[in-house]
Design brief:
Elements: H1 3-7, H2 19-41, H3 49-57, H4 64-99, H5 111-124, H6 131-137, H7 141-161, E1 162-163, E2 166-167, H8 169-193, H9 196-206, H10 215-232, H11 236-242, H12 246-251, H13 256-278, H14 284-296, H15 300-324, H16 333-354
Antiparallel strand pairs: 1-2
Helix pairs in contact: 2-3, 2-4, 2-15, 3-4, 4-10, 4-13, 4-14, 4-15, 5-7, 5-8, 5-13, 7-8, 7-13, 10-13, 11-15, 14-15, 15-16
Length: about 350
Protein backbone atom coordinates (compact mmCIF):
# COMPACT_ATOMS: atom_id res chain seq x y z
CA UNK A 1 0.00 0.00 0.00
CA UNK A 2 1.39 3.45 -0.88
CA UNK A 3 2.04 6.10 1.73
CA UNK A 4 -0.81 8.26 0.43
CA UNK A 5 -3.32 5.42 0.63
CA UNK A 6 -2.06 4.48 4.08
CA UNK A 7 -2.56 8.03 5.28
CA UNK A 8 -6.08 8.28 3.87
CA UNK A 9 -7.25 4.76 4.74
CA UNK A 10 -10.80 4.74 6.15
CA UNK A 11 -10.89 5.02 9.90
CA UNK A 12 -13.43 2.20 10.01
CA UNK A 13 -10.69 -0.24 8.96
CA UNK A 14 -8.34 0.76 11.78
CA UNK A 15 -8.05 -1.58 14.74
CA UNK A 16 -7.71 0.05 18.12
CA UNK A 17 -5.60 -2.64 19.70
CA UNK A 18 -3.17 -4.80 17.81
CA UNK A 19 -0.18 -6.75 19.13
CA UNK A 20 2.28 -4.83 17.00
CA UNK A 21 1.18 -1.51 18.53
CA UNK A 22 1.88 -2.72 22.04
CA UNK A 23 5.19 -4.25 20.97
CA UNK A 24 6.14 -1.03 19.19
CA UNK A 25 5.36 1.03 22.28
CA UNK A 26 7.41 -1.22 24.57
CA UNK A 27 10.31 -1.45 22.11
CA UNK A 28 10.47 2.32 21.61
CA UNK A 29 10.36 2.99 25.34
CA UNK A 30 13.15 0.48 26.09
CA UNK A 31 15.27 1.77 23.21
CA UNK A 32 14.83 5.36 24.40
CA UNK A 33 15.87 4.38 27.92
CA UNK A 34 18.98 2.61 26.59
CA UNK A 35 19.89 5.57 24.39
CA UNK A 36 19.51 8.00 27.30
CA UNK A 37 21.87 5.95 29.44
CA UNK A 38 24.31 5.65 26.52
CA UNK A 39 24.03 9.40 25.96
CA UNK A 40 24.91 10.09 29.58
CA UNK A 41 27.77 7.62 29.37
CA UNK A 42 29.28 8.87 26.09
CA UNK A 43 31.30 12.00 25.48
CA UNK A 44 34.75 13.53 25.98
CA UNK A 45 34.58 12.33 29.60
CA UNK A 46 33.61 8.66 29.31
CA UNK A 47 31.64 7.07 32.14
CA UNK A 48 30.92 3.42 32.83
CA UNK A 49 27.40 2.07 33.25
CA UNK A 50 28.08 1.66 36.96
CA UNK A 51 29.16 5.28 37.31
CA UNK A 52 26.06 6.49 35.45
CA UNK A 53 23.62 4.51 37.59
CA UNK A 54 25.40 5.41 40.81
CA UNK A 55 25.39 9.12 39.96
CA UNK A 56 21.72 9.03 38.98
CA UNK A 57 20.54 7.05 42.00
CA UNK A 58 22.92 8.38 44.66
CA UNK A 59 24.60 11.65 43.61
CA UNK A 60 26.18 12.11 47.03
CA UNK A 61 28.25 8.97 46.53
CA UNK A 62 29.62 10.13 43.15
CA UNK A 63 32.63 12.35 42.55
CA UNK A 64 32.28 16.05 41.81
CA UNK A 65 33.24 15.47 38.18
CA UNK A 66 30.64 12.71 37.76
CA UNK A 67 27.90 14.88 39.28
CA UNK A 68 28.74 17.83 37.05
CA UNK A 69 28.98 15.74 33.87
CA UNK A 70 25.77 13.79 34.53
CA UNK A 71 23.48 16.28 36.27
CA UNK A 72 24.64 19.63 34.89
CA UNK A 73 25.87 18.85 31.37
CA UNK A 74 24.45 15.69 29.84
CA UNK A 75 21.13 15.03 31.55
CA UNK A 76 19.54 18.47 30.88
CA UNK A 77 20.78 18.24 27.31
CA UNK A 78 19.16 14.84 26.84
CA UNK A 79 15.89 15.95 28.44
CA UNK A 80 15.80 19.03 26.20
CA UNK A 81 16.48 16.82 23.19
CA UNK A 82 13.60 14.53 24.12
CA UNK A 83 11.24 17.49 24.51
CA UNK A 84 12.30 19.05 21.20
CA UNK A 85 12.14 15.75 19.30
CA UNK A 86 8.70 14.87 20.65
CA UNK A 87 7.37 18.36 19.85
CA UNK A 88 8.60 18.33 16.26
CA UNK A 89 7.35 14.79 15.63
CA UNK A 90 3.88 15.19 17.15
CA UNK A 91 3.32 18.49 15.33
CA UNK A 92 4.44 16.84 12.08
CA UNK A 93 2.01 13.96 12.61
CA UNK A 94 -0.83 16.37 13.36
CA UNK A 95 -0.16 18.54 10.30
CA UNK A 96 0.16 15.51 8.02
CA UNK A 97 -3.24 14.34 9.24
CA UNK A 98 -4.73 17.80 8.86
CA UNK A 99 -3.47 18.20 5.29
CA UNK A 100 -3.93 14.50 4.47
CA UNK A 101 -0.43 14.66 3.02
CA UNK A 102 2.51 12.54 4.30
CA UNK A 103 4.98 15.15 3.04
CA UNK A 104 3.66 17.91 5.31
CA UNK A 105 5.87 19.04 8.17
CA UNK A 106 6.05 21.94 10.66
CA UNK A 107 8.08 24.02 8.23
CA UNK A 108 5.49 23.83 5.49
CA UNK A 109 3.19 26.57 6.82
CA UNK A 110 6.00 28.88 7.80
CA UNK A 111 5.85 27.80 11.45
CA UNK A 112 9.55 26.98 11.74
CA UNK A 113 10.78 29.93 9.68
CA UNK A 114 8.46 32.34 11.53
CA UNK A 115 9.65 30.97 14.87
CA UNK A 116 13.26 31.30 13.72
CA UNK A 117 12.61 34.92 12.71
CA UNK A 118 11.12 35.67 16.13
CA UNK A 119 14.06 34.06 17.91
CA UNK A 120 16.65 35.86 15.78
CA UNK A 121 14.85 39.17 16.36
CA UNK A 122 14.96 38.53 20.10
CA UNK A 123 18.71 37.87 19.98
CA UNK A 124 19.67 40.79 17.69
CA UNK A 125 17.22 43.43 19.00
CA UNK A 126 17.39 42.55 22.70
CA UNK A 127 19.47 45.64 23.40
CA UNK A 128 17.35 48.08 21.40
CA UNK A 129 13.79 47.73 20.12
CA UNK A 130 12.94 44.64 22.16
CA UNK A 131 14.77 45.71 25.32
CA UNK A 132 11.51 46.31 27.32
CA UNK A 133 10.19 42.88 26.37
CA UNK A 134 13.49 41.24 27.24
CA UNK A 135 13.63 43.01 30.60
CA UNK A 136 10.04 42.03 31.42
CA UNK A 137 10.23 38.37 30.40
CA UNK A 138 13.87 37.53 31.01
CA UNK A 139 14.75 34.06 29.68
CA UNK A 140 11.12 33.56 28.64
CA UNK A 141 11.55 36.29 26.01
CA UNK A 142 13.16 33.91 23.50
CA UNK A 143 10.41 31.22 23.48
CA UNK A 144 7.72 33.91 23.59
CA UNK A 145 9.17 35.65 20.54
CA UNK A 146 9.64 32.34 18.74
CA UNK A 147 6.04 31.34 19.41
CA UNK A 148 4.84 34.79 18.34
CA UNK A 149 6.81 34.55 15.10
CA UNK A 150 5.49 31.07 14.33
CA UNK A 151 1.92 32.00 15.21
CA UNK A 152 1.96 35.22 13.16
CA UNK A 153 3.42 33.44 10.12
CA UNK A 154 0.84 30.68 10.44
CA UNK A 155 -2.08 33.05 10.90
CA UNK A 156 -0.97 35.10 7.89
CA UNK A 157 -0.97 31.96 5.75
CA UNK A 158 -4.32 31.04 7.24
CA UNK A 159 -5.81 34.44 6.45
CA UNK A 160 -4.65 34.24 2.84
CA UNK A 161 -6.20 30.78 2.43
CA UNK A 162 -9.49 31.56 4.18
CA UNK A 163 -12.39 32.67 2.02
CA UNK A 164 -16.07 32.86 3.06
CA UNK A 165 -15.38 30.99 6.28
CA UNK A 166 -13.69 28.06 4.51
CA UNK A 167 -9.95 27.36 4.43
CA UNK A 168 -8.41 25.95 1.27
CA UNK A 169 -5.64 23.50 2.20
CA UNK A 170 -3.94 23.87 -1.21
CA UNK A 171 -3.88 27.68 -0.89
CA UNK A 172 -2.65 27.36 2.68
CA UNK A 173 0.35 25.32 1.54
CA UNK A 174 1.20 27.80 -1.21
CA UNK A 175 0.89 30.71 1.22
CA UNK A 176 3.20 28.87 3.59
CA UNK A 177 5.85 28.64 0.88
CA UNK A 178 5.66 32.41 0.27
CA UNK A 179 5.82 33.20 4.00
CA UNK A 180 8.82 30.89 4.38
CA UNK A 181 10.61 32.98 1.76
CA UNK A 182 9.66 36.30 3.39
CA UNK A 183 10.64 35.10 6.88
CA UNK A 184 13.95 33.80 5.53
CA UNK A 185 14.70 37.16 3.93
CA UNK A 186 13.83 39.05 7.14
CA UNK A 187 16.06 36.68 9.12
CA UNK A 188 18.86 37.42 6.65
CA UNK A 189 18.45 41.18 7.20
CA UNK A 190 18.65 40.76 10.98
CA UNK A 191 21.70 38.54 10.59
CA UNK A 192 23.32 41.26 8.47
CA UNK A 193 22.64 43.80 11.25
CA UNK A 194 23.98 41.55 14.02
CA UNK A 195 27.23 42.30 15.82
CA UNK A 196 30.19 39.95 15.56
CA UNK A 197 29.30 38.26 18.86
CA UNK A 198 25.63 37.90 17.89
CA UNK A 199 26.63 36.67 14.45
CA UNK A 200 28.73 33.84 15.87
CA UNK A 201 25.85 32.82 18.13
CA UNK A 202 23.35 32.99 15.28
CA UNK A 203 25.55 31.01 12.92
CA UNK A 204 25.84 28.15 15.39
CA UNK A 205 22.19 28.43 16.43
CA UNK A 206 20.86 28.25 12.86
CA UNK A 207 22.60 24.87 12.46
CA UNK A 208 20.66 23.49 15.42
CA UNK A 209 22.31 22.69 18.73
CA UNK A 210 21.58 21.42 22.24
CA UNK A 211 25.06 22.27 23.49
CA UNK A 212 24.03 25.07 25.85
CA UNK A 213 21.12 23.27 27.49
CA UNK A 214 20.62 23.76 31.22
CA UNK A 215 17.87 22.99 33.69
CA UNK A 216 16.45 26.50 33.49
CA UNK A 217 16.04 26.16 29.71
CA UNK A 218 14.47 22.74 30.20
CA UNK A 219 11.91 24.14 32.64
CA UNK A 220 11.00 26.95 30.27
CA UNK A 221 10.64 24.83 27.15
CA UNK A 222 8.88 22.01 29.04
CA UNK A 223 6.11 24.40 30.05
CA UNK A 224 5.40 25.30 26.42
CA UNK A 225 5.93 21.91 24.80
CA UNK A 226 4.14 19.74 27.36
CA UNK A 227 1.12 22.05 27.52
CA UNK A 228 0.88 22.25 23.72
CA UNK A 229 1.28 18.50 23.30
CA UNK A 230 -1.26 17.76 26.04
CA UNK A 231 -3.81 19.92 24.21
CA UNK A 232 -2.99 18.33 20.86
CA UNK A 233 -3.42 14.67 21.89
CA UNK A 234 -7.22 14.93 22.49
CA UNK A 235 -7.59 16.04 18.86
CA UNK A 236 -6.71 12.54 17.66
CA UNK A 237 -10.33 11.54 17.01
CA UNK A 238 -11.12 14.69 14.99
CA UNK A 239 -7.94 14.04 12.98
CA UNK A 240 -9.17 10.51 12.26
CA UNK A 241 -12.45 11.96 11.07
CA UNK A 242 -10.63 14.46 8.83
CA UNK A 243 -8.96 11.54 7.04
CA UNK A 244 -12.41 10.82 5.60
CA UNK A 245 -12.76 14.38 4.34
CA UNK A 246 -13.86 17.66 5.84
CA UNK A 247 -17.51 17.21 4.90
CA UNK A 248 -17.67 13.80 6.55
CA UNK A 249 -15.97 15.17 9.66
CA UNK A 250 -18.53 17.96 9.77
CA UNK A 251 -21.41 15.49 9.45
CA UNK A 252 -19.94 13.53 12.36
CA UNK A 253 -20.38 16.62 14.54
CA UNK A 254 -16.86 18.06 14.56
CA UNK A 255 -16.30 21.79 14.12
CA UNK A 256 -13.80 21.50 11.32
CA UNK A 257 -12.63 25.11 11.12
CA UNK A 258 -12.08 25.36 14.89
CA UNK A 259 -10.13 22.09 14.82
CA UNK A 260 -7.93 23.39 12.00
CA UNK A 261 -7.17 26.60 13.89
CA UNK A 262 -6.42 24.70 17.11
CA UNK A 263 -4.04 22.28 15.38
CA UNK A 264 -2.16 25.02 13.57
CA UNK A 265 -1.79 27.22 16.67
CA UNK A 266 -0.74 24.30 18.88
CA UNK A 267 1.83 23.29 16.27
CA UNK A 268 3.14 26.86 16.26
CA UNK A 269 3.36 26.75 20.07
CA UNK A 270 5.44 23.58 20.38
CA UNK A 271 7.57 24.21 17.28
CA UNK A 272 8.23 27.80 18.36
CA UNK A 273 9.48 26.66 21.75
CA UNK A 274 11.65 23.99 20.12
CA UNK A 275 13.20 26.36 17.60
CA UNK A 276 13.86 28.95 20.31
CA UNK A 277 15.90 26.56 22.44
CA UNK A 278 17.52 24.26 19.87
CA UNK A 279 17.45 26.13 16.58
CA UNK A 280 15.95 24.68 13.41
CA UNK A 281 16.21 20.87 13.28
CA UNK A 282 14.86 19.40 10.08
CA UNK A 283 13.36 16.07 9.06
CA UNK A 284 12.07 15.05 12.51
CA UNK A 285 8.52 16.25 11.86
CA UNK A 286 8.59 14.81 8.35
CA UNK A 287 10.35 11.48 8.82
CA UNK A 288 9.13 10.19 12.19
CA UNK A 289 5.33 10.23 11.57
CA UNK A 290 5.89 8.66 8.17
CA UNK A 291 7.81 5.76 9.68
CA UNK A 292 5.40 5.22 12.57
CA UNK A 293 2.42 5.28 10.22
CA UNK A 294 3.89 2.41 8.21
CA UNK A 295 4.06 0.34 11.42
CA UNK A 296 0.86 1.15 13.32
CA UNK A 297 -1.38 2.70 10.66
CA UNK A 298 -3.06 6.09 10.49
CA UNK A 299 -5.05 6.01 13.73
CA UNK A 300 -3.95 9.24 15.41
CA UNK A 301 -4.88 7.95 18.86
CA UNK A 302 -1.73 5.84 18.54
CA UNK A 303 0.12 7.80 15.88
CA UNK A 304 0.47 11.00 17.92
CA UNK A 305 1.92 9.51 21.15
CA UNK A 306 4.13 7.03 19.29
CA UNK A 307 5.44 9.83 17.07
CA UNK A 308 6.26 11.88 20.16
CA UNK A 309 8.18 8.96 21.66
CA UNK A 310 10.00 8.22 18.40
CA UNK A 311 10.88 11.88 17.85
CA UNK A 312 12.46 12.00 21.29
CA UNK A 313 14.40 8.84 20.50
CA UNK A 314 15.66 10.13 17.15
CA UNK A 315 16.89 13.47 18.52
CA UNK A 316 18.63 11.78 21.47
CA UNK A 317 20.38 9.43 19.03
CA UNK A 318 21.42 12.29 16.74
CA UNK A 319 22.66 14.41 19.64
CA UNK A 320 24.73 11.52 21.02
CA UNK A 321 26.35 11.13 17.61
CA UNK A 322 27.03 14.88 17.54
CA UNK A 323 28.97 14.66 20.79
CA UNK A 324 30.92 11.49 20.06
CA UNK A 325 31.77 11.31 16.35
CA UNK A 326 34.45 14.03 16.47
CA UNK A 327 34.97 14.31 20.25
CA UNK A 328 36.06 16.59 21.82
CA UNK A 329 34.74 18.67 18.90
CA UNK A 330 30.98 18.70 18.36
CA UNK A 331 28.80 18.69 15.26
CA UNK A 332 25.58 20.77 15.13
CA UNK A 333 22.57 18.49 15.48
CA UNK A 334 20.78 20.15 12.57
CA UNK A 335 23.55 19.05 10.22
CA UNK A 336 23.59 15.51 11.61
CA UNK A 337 19.80 15.23 11.27
CA UNK A 338 20.03 16.37 7.68
CA UNK A 339 22.74 13.77 6.96
CA UNK A 340 20.64 11.04 8.62
CA UNK A 341 17.17 12.07 7.55
CA UNK A 342 17.77 13.18 3.98
CA UNK A 343 19.20 9.98 2.46
CA UNK A 344 17.02 7.74 4.61
CA UNK A 345 13.86 9.56 3.57
CA UNK A 346 14.85 9.37 -0.10
CA UNK A 347 15.38 5.60 0.21
CA UNK A 348 12.08 5.23 2.04
CA UNK A 349 10.28 7.31 -0.58
CA UNK A 350 11.80 5.25 -3.40
CA UNK A 351 10.77 2.01 -1.71
CA UNK A 352 7.25 3.33 -1.11
CA UNK A 353 6.75 4.51 -4.67
CA UNK A 354 8.51 1.76 -6.59
CA UNK A 355 8.47 -1.18 -4.19
CA UNK A 356 12.25 -1.62 -3.98
CA UNK A 357 15.28 0.08 -2.41
Amino acid sequence: MSTISTLTAPVARMRWLEPRIGLTLVALFILLLVLVVMGIQSGPVALTWQQVWQTLLDPAAATVQERVVVWELRLPRLVLGMLVGSALAVSGAALQGLFRNPLADPGLLGVASGAALGAVACIVLAGSVLAPLHDALGRHALPVMAFAGGAIATLLAWQVARQSGVTSIATLLLAGIAINTIAGAATGVLTFLASDTELRSLTFWTMGSLAFANWQDVKIVALWILSGTALMLPLAKPLNALLLGEQVAGHLGYRVEQIKIALVLLSALVVGASVAMAGPIGFVGLLVPHLIRTVVGANHQWLLPLSALSGALLVVLADTLCRTLLAPAELPIGLVMALIGGPFFLLLLRKTLYGHG
